[in-house]
Amino acid sequence: MNPAPAGRAPVILLIGTVDTKSEEIAFLRESVEHCGARALVMDVGVLGRGGFTPDILNSDVAAAAGMTLRQVMDSGDENTSMRLMARGASLLATQWQMEGRFDGVLILGGTMGTDLALDVANALPLGCPKLVLSTIAYSPLIPPERIPADLIMQLWAGGLYGLNRLCKSALGQAAGAVVGACRACPVAPDPRPVVGMTSLGSSALTYMKRLKPELEARGYELAVFHTTGMGGRAFEDLARRGYFACVMDFSLQEVVNHLADSCVSAGGDRLLGAGSAGIPQIVAPGATDMVDFAAWTRRPDGYAGRPVHEHNRLLASVGAKHDLRRRVARTVAERLAQASGPTCLLLPARGIEEWDRPGEPMHDPAGLAAFMEEMVGAVSPGTSVRCVDAHINDEAFVRAVLDVFDTWVREGRVAPGVLAAATAEVTA
Questions:
Q1: Which one of 140, 184, 203, 325 is separated from 47 by 20 to 30 angstroms, measured CA to CA?
Q2: Model's pTM, two decimal places?
């Protein structure tokens, strides 16, 4: 992240519908200025003029989308009009951010404004502070695949219509949060390539504890993502954007969850981001023997009698049935087949998470055998497959991972690491 240069007040791009929320946006502008920053207001409303003149007119936003404001208003209904304004706002915000005209963005709205806000936030690069103040923050109405990796979202309590003390509190906090993000200390430059890895916590899957020092010794930085829905979403988003030199995607239970209609989902495009970007990927079926569910609800229908692991008061898992495990294998094979970069699938034959060991609640040798049989039969010729006679948390699995990784580095498929001496020169 690049904060506002020292000595210059951060500039915050405020986006909202000035026609319907003039009072709220004016108060937000004052709040930003109270925090020592400067505000630029972009009007994305289509119903008329508001109580003040914004810095970027709604007609400018429409023009960025290639239309006049009248054409936008006559395009159909409020939904189609706001989609067009979202296109224009995204293009303008992207251009202005590249030109250095603002340091962070704050967007407010209800369902319409949030729909637009997600488009704009996704158009901006990683590290540009982006905060959405929404009446539907954290709502299941928002699909995981539309949430960028570094989005800040705050509930706009009491903010649907008009100012009040609750609304003002939310507006003031949002202003302070985005200004603070723009003033945050810069992250020191690091020339090391980043390896993206997935895991289900550090108890069910433990390979990262061995792999982290090994990768760092080779001159790489490791970023591990918690595959409990939003972690996998962030991982996919960054992979699709080409952020990683290589991915080690070893925790795939979000694929299982999505197929089983669990709320713990990273979206329908899980396991596609790295492949679409041509990023080398080493994949393993960690934790694909479980379906996650909210521990404060009852277990999913149709799973009576299946083993359950209650991880905490938020998250629990139930053992996946054999037909689902076969379906997961086919889905994984189909998605890996779409990859445009090097792809290796490692299949640990003695278990795929810590509770899948003899005597543990999720140990199901027949289920694992069904998965492996389906997996081997479904995988495409373009995917390299290696069976590993070990548990996924064993040292032998780590050695198999490093063997593939080191081979790809020697072959030039993965960018070479940057060792400590060179890193110290850059960060000094």
A1: 140
A2: 0.85
